[in-house]
Amino acid sequence: MLTIFGSTALDTIRTPTKVLKDVLGGAATFAGISASFFVKPRLIAVVGKDFPKKYHKILAERLDLKGLSIKDGKTFRYSGSYDNTLSLRTTLRTDLNVLKNFKPVVPEDYKKSKFVYLANNDPDQNTSLITEFDNVKFSMCDTIDFWISTKRASVVKMFKSVDAVVINDEEAKLLTKEFNLIKCAKKIMGWGAKYVIIKKGEHGSLLFFEDVVFTSAAFSLEKIVDPTGAGDSFAGAMMGYLASKNKTDLATIKKSVVYGNVMGSFAVEGYGPEVLLRIKKSDIKKRITQYEKMTRF
Amino acid sequence: MLTIFGSTALDTIRTPTKVLKDVLGGAATFAGISASFFVKPRLIAVVGKDFPKKYHKILAERLDLKGLSIKDGKTFRYSGSYDNTLSLRTTLRTDLNVLKNFKPVVPEDYKKSKFVYLANNDPDQNTSLITEFDNVKFSMCDTIDFWISTKRASVVKMFKSVDAVVINDEEAKLLTKEFNLIKCAKKIMGWGAKYVIIKKGEHGSLLFFEDVVFTSAAFSLEKIVDPTGAGDSFAGAMMGYLASKNKTDLATIKKSVVYGNVMGSFAVEGYGPEVLLRIKKSDIKKRITQYEKMTRF
């Protein structure tokens, strides 16, 4: 089974075509919905009393919510704006609200989870939380520039406590102070992570394990609407796929990265999680076949 | 057989690790050397009387030089400087010299060439030159930002006169005024090119044909020394491979793109064309196998 620890949020996003206000967002939301096509993920997260019932219902249909705390106060809010090319996002505002003093609790029956995904949370919280699981087969964490800038040592320490690190290219460079992504990955592996997955947005991703590099292109799309949540959907798909197979050999991890690329491609085709909420398993299968066709020679 | 029309130059390149002065360069030089691993390409180019004998010897060993004019005056000189990340190049100086009033002449026995590559020359010259070949099976051209900015209509006209356009991502965006690379390619195909290959540097390339997209990653390298000539080596490998097979079906063109990625990866590992001049066919074969391993899932 798979447990996901991360944020649930209400997002306000400006894209060149539309402004979304207080829509369902957060790293754990995207990762969880994406993973839910493969398993029923367990969620550890917090929302405020203002969290809309319809969003709660969406999560409840797809995820085990025993680990979702509902606190007095307001739900975490994020606000960001994309440029015309949709490749640059500026954070306009972050209101932590109930996330500020949240102490995550792992429900008793989550503790046997073999697969654990720690989203871009406070690295100290991630490092502490993973110790509460006593049967972990594969754990993976993400991080963001905010933690790299404010808690670099904690980020490095967190990497030692997991099997895999998933991180985007710019953050990998910021963290390791290297320009070359192979050098970035080697440094991160040197800190203790066995697997490193570097996400390159529209350019796909690189998976590193020992001296193996697996390079995979993104699923090419003509219409990108809102990139929010693509990286989280990528990571969620990886973890969901691995948990569904209950395997962690290299061939399965490579395949999980392909699913990551494909689920990320669905995420960016619509506003917020709307496309992820609309598609069916058959759509994913179809796109995996298209992806194979697009990359085979 | 394959004919290549393009520049031969003396390059002065500043990289973070070394300054190269008056080294062998030019689009046709890289494309020609790269293609020479597959066929013996015919060159149409011009140099001045100052062109070093040792460079002439290098070209003579690999290429048919009947189409190389040696004119009174100085060889075309290019000078550029890379930033620390090796991803941004600034042109410091361009001295056209003998290239300025060069009127390319196609030697009689070149005219039967089935494969013709027109490098980033003046688009009007390319459009005119291709009409002198009477047995063309597959022609491809490149272009650069200078022509897009100064002779846009001629660039578009040139695209109608060839089978394939190879262009880098930034130039494709500049030319088509689109952000999305699929949209860029569709516009270029709309102008008359059957195949469009968009080079994305370290992120690989995209091949477009009708409604097919073939996306291929770059060969991942830890050590990049000098990116000069990578794109030209890519195009040269494509054309050399196709000419050696004498085929232009989609599967063969996909394979030629893979060879393009691999030859481009050799080019960036050393200063100027030094690695391309050092490797053997067996090194290319080995890297193709590594590339397959790196991308298969």
UniProtKB/TrEMBL annotation, chains A, B:
Gene3D superfamilies: 3.40.1190.20. It holds the Pfam family PfkB. InterPro entries: Carboh/pur_kinase_PfkB_CS, PfkB_dom, Ribokinase-like. GO terms for cellular component: cytosol. Signal peptide: none annotated. The keyword Transferase applies. It comes from the Archaea. GO terms for molecular function: kinase activity. The keyword Transferase applies. Coiled coil: none annotated. Keywords: Kinase, Transferase. Residues 16-273 form the Carbohydrate kinase PfkB domain. PANTHER family: RIBOKINASE (PTHR10584:SF166), SUGAR KINASE (PTHR10584). Belongs to the carbohydrate kinase PfkB family. This is Bifunctional hydroxymethylpyrimidine kinase/phosphomethylpyrimidine kinase. The lineage of its organism: Archaea, Nitrososphaerota, Marine Group I.
